[in-house]
Structures are given as structure tokens and as C-alpha cells.
Amino acid sequence: MRYNTLGRTGLFVSELCLGTMTFGESDEGMWAKIGQLGQDEADTLVRTAVEGGVNFIDTADVYADGRSEEITGQAIRNLGLKRDEIVVATKGFGATGLGPNARGNSRYHLIDACKASLKRLQLDHVDLYQIHGFDPVTPIEETLRALDTLVQHGHVRYVGVSNWAAWQITKALGIAERLGLHRFASLQAYYTLVGRELEREIAPMLLSEEVGLMVWSPLAGGFLSGKYSAGDPGDGRRTAFDFPPVEPARGDAVIAALRPIAEDRGVSVARIALAWLLHQRAVTSVIVGAKRPDQLADNLGATEIDLTAEELAALDKVSGLQREYPGWMLERQGQMQRDLLAQRR
To answer: Active site includes 228?
Structure first.
């Protein structure tokens, strides 16, 4: 297990992060299709992750209506994990009640949501508090000031964001710098071999501005486990909850390229798909979730895979994005300058 700094901070997080979306029983909504793990099962997964070198756990206040946070916090206690050896991240934004102010990124909601998360987690602070989505109503400045208050009061150590566009994050970074507020340390975003849209604008921005990247759903909702085809979701989770979307022809081509690499190494298709992400420069940590310890153990094995240049090229060939403007023009016009850099000793 390797450890990377989270963006422009001195905080080291493991290159794999345990996701807890599967924690918490629910009888309705998407959580009935995703989660359903109780305390004992969650304790086993947390123990497996920590024993595998993971020091990073991610949850959210909307996972199983808060039960995920409760189970995560109790697991930390049940296993006797030292607080200074575990990095705990959670998120706020989603609806936590029926009223119009029980959601979004307003100061009104975020401060109460964070304190409620701390209570469920049985912690006096979280290490990373993330905005779970973009609020088209609340001014970004209001959100940043609320997050800064949470840091100043000791409830939060670092702040991050999830599912924002490149321009939104860049605007927030500029506001934070102008006002002297705590800046986003990380972005949590979707990124896989069958979903590389992030590479157009977001990944270059993250590298330029030194913002870390946490990858959610790195197996595209199980698709990259290799047990589905894009045209036939089978009888797994994607049958009831077909998310994230996968373009059929591209998905099948990626699986076809992954299989021989996995077979040559005697490992699962999922392990190779995760290893590909760990080879991407913008990635700080990849969030892996599981329902069984054997699934999690297999995912942890991705840290041991070093893909060759030929293998990376083969995967890039079937999964790369179509060229778009202004990307192809930037590439063309900047080539002479890149050639000069290549000549340096």
C-alpha cells in the first residue's frame, strides 16, 4: 500500500480508500439495492481494509439515511482503531429532512449537517468534510465561509468537494484565495476505463491547482468486475440499479482488453481495472466498496499490480476519449514547446 498526500496538504492517505456505501440496512430507495450490511459485516470489512494498509475511510450523511455513518463510527470503536491512525471522510449536501432548508450547501444546512454527522460517527472531528454536490442556488462564497467556520471550530480538518465541474472548482479556489478561506483539498469524482470524461477538463485542472482526486465507483457499479456485458446486466446490482451508465460497445471492448491481461497474471478483471486507475497521475486515492471480505481482499490486491507500458497502451486504445476542440488544437499548437522541454538534460 502506498500513501499519497491529499492535494496541497501534508495529510497522507492510502491509495485505496474504504467506501461505506454498502453499510446500513434499508427497505426502500437505492440503498435497498446497494447496501444492507449490518454492524458485524461492516466490522469485518473495516478490519480487512486496515490490515491491508488502508488508513482512509469515506462515508456520507445520506448513505442509508445516516446508518452508514453510525455503523462506520461504531466499527472504529469496536475494532479499537487509534484515532490518529485513521483518516475519516464524510459528506454533506443531500436531503437529511423534509424541509426546504434540510439540503444544499447553505450555511444553515452545512453546519447542522456536519454536527449531525459527528454525532452519528461518535467523533469530535472529521478529517475531510466534502460537499457532496453542486447547489445552483447557494453562492459559492457562502458555502466556503461555512466550511471555513467548521474548520475554525475544530469540527473539520480539511475540506473537499464532489461532483463539481472544473469551472466551479476553479471559481471556488479563486474565492478561497481572495478571502483567505480554507481551499478544497480534494475532489471526489467518477473515473473509470469506461468513463474517462474527467480527463477533458477536470484532471488537468486538478494537476494544475494541486487538488487531490478521490475516485468513486472505480468499477463502474460492478461492470468492470467482468461479470456483465454492456448489453446484458445479468442478475447483479446493475439489473436493479444501472448506474453509472456504460456505453455498450465501449464497455464490451474494454472488458475484452482487460481479460487477457488479467488471465496472463492470474488475477481478476476487477483488479486490473483498479490497477489502471492507480497508474493515472491525477489519482490520489481510489474508493473501493464491497459486500464480502473476499471481494475487498481482491480489490486490495490491485496495489501489487504494475502494468507494463504495452498493457497501458492496449487499455488506452479501447477506452480513450474521442478528440474534441479545443483539446486537439491545444495539442497541435503546444507541440513545439513540448519538444523543447523534451530536449532538456
So the answer is: no
